[in-house]
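Action item from last meeting closed. Structure (439 res):
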């Protein structure tokens, strides 16, 4: 397990490049299973979640060839086969993606098995919406000791589905199942994140008929066959925002090449109100600390087009340096503030509350979840030893260590490789002072 010894106090300055979005690329890879011919996906980052899905697809007979330099994947689904449960379980890693293989495998093989899911430990993260959706399409769902087995002996039929919450994964579940189902599907309460729209674009390239209406309604007309696609994945708006937060927290200046303004509007507004400097260009976005005080803010996470939940953890580190009291109301996950314990050990002043401290409708009020944070600043941060808890909390710990006075020892950095491509190379390129230790 690798660890980092980070000497803080160095402003991060320079340029990084973000490539394909962690929250789109693995789904696009799964979509290739629906095609009768090979697909080609470009702008693919070298991250662990892509490696996990590559292995899972290979277990099911899909050949995945990668042109490493350009990040181009060629996926050939012509020999799809059922994989052994034990093999799937061993390769599922800490990814959320296996659940999305169900629809395509049910179409291709009439059966599917998914292991218990991984992903960031930021709440219970049930899959009840997914299972309900698949039952609505006609799948039989059986809970096993090690996961869930599904079958669709009579194929899959279009359905009317109303999601209780605009779940990204459940929306993807519907899209990946309905496009080849018999008949029409109407989805109400759909998520509309940029990554969802990019997946819809991919499916349309394959021959799917998908209409995105107003008020989160999506209609899909099932077709008997889909063909392979050629697509360049949209950039990772979460990694871009993470580097922006790092620039502010360390007093630096980072040009994020590839960052796409249209996907980050809510983040950019918040960044500007916080007092961060922005230079929005066609090829990327420059994030910088302009000097002077940072302004305290009230930030409420929400589904798109609101402030994305994955943006909040790195931004909280910058809020610890704002001149006053800030509030973050996390309305998407019930347990996403565990990472603040390490920040408080470093000298931050973050108090967690069970109340909804904001006006965004939230499922967690009065349910004993510490899902609102009150952050008092500015507080100088002191170096400490940190073990990374999850992907975004881990990146926030890296930012804090780089902003802190002294030498921090950060372990468990493998988790960060799930969603940040070559992040130690990028940190070195930005002037960070650290040593990588392999244990
Ligand atoms: C791999 C990937 O794309 N991950 C993203 C995806 O996660 P993921 O798709 O897992 O997130 P969802 O949008 O489904 O989850 C949102 C909320 O719905 C709840 N829920 C979800 C499904 C379900 O069956 N039952 C249920 O109750 C979750 O517990 C959570 O409280 O969207 C999240 C919200 O933008 C992001 O933070 C994740 O980075
Ligand atoms: C929660 C996240 O990822 P996942 O859903 O893959 O755990 C994230 O990217 O912040």
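Sequence:
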């Amino acid at each position: 397990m690798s660890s980092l010894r980070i000497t803080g106090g160095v402003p991060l300055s320079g340029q990084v490049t973000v490539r394909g979005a962690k929250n789109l690329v693995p789904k696009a890879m799964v979509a290739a299973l629906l095609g009768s011919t090979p697909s080609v996906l470009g702008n693919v980052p070298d991250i662990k979640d892509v490696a996990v899905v590559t292995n899972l697809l290979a277990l099911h007979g899909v050949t995945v060839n990668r042109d490493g330099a350009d990040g181009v994947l060629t996926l050939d689904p012509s020999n799809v086969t059922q994989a052994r449960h034990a093999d799937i379980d061993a390769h599922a890693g800490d990814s959320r993606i296996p659940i999305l293989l169900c629809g395509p495998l049910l179409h291709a093989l009439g059966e599917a098995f998914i292991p218990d899911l991984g992903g960031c430990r930021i709440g219970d993260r049930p899959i009840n919406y997914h299972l309900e959706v698949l039952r609505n399409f006609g799948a039989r769902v059986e809970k096993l000791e090690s996961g869930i087995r599904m079958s669709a002996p009579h194929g899959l039929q279009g359905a009317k589905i109303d999601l209780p919450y605009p779940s990204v994964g459940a929306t993807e579940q519907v899209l990946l199942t309905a496009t080849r189902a018999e008949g029409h599907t109407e989805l109400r309460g759909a998520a509309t994140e940029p990554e969802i729209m990019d997946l819809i674009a991919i499916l349309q390239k394959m021959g799917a008929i998908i209409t995105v209406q107003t008020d989160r309604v999506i209609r899909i007309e099932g077709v008997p066959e889909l063909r392979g696609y050629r697509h360049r994945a949209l950039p990772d708006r979460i990694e871009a925002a993470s580097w922006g937060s790092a620039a502010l927290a360390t007093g630096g200046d980072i040009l994020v090449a590839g960052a796409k303004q249209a996907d980050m509007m809510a983040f950019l507004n918040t960044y500007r109100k916080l007092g961060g400097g922005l230079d929005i260009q066609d090829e990327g976005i420059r994030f910088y600390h302009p000097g002077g005080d940072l302004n305290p803010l009230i930030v409420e996470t929400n589904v798109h087009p609101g402030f994305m939940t994955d943006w909040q953890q790195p931004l909280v580190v910058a809020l610890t340096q704002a001149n006053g009291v800030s509030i973050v109301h996390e309305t998407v996950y019930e347990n996403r503030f565990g990472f603040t314990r390490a920040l408080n050990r470093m000298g931050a002043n973050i108090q967690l509350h069970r109340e909804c401290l904001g006006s965004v409708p939230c499922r967690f009020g009065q349910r004993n979840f510490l899902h609102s944070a009150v952050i008092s600043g500015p507080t100088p941060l002191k170096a400490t030893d940190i073990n990374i808890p999850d992907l975004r909390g881990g990146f926030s710990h890296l930012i804090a260590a780089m902003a802190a006075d002294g030498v921090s020892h950060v372990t468990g950095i493998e988790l960060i490789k799930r969603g940040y491509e070559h992040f130690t190379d990028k940190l070195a390129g930005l002037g960070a002072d650290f040593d990588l230790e392999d244990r």
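Note appended to the action item: Residues 23, 96, 123-130, 165, 167-170, 309-310, 332-333 surround uridine-diphosphate-N-acetylglucosamine (ligand 1) (CB under 6 Å).
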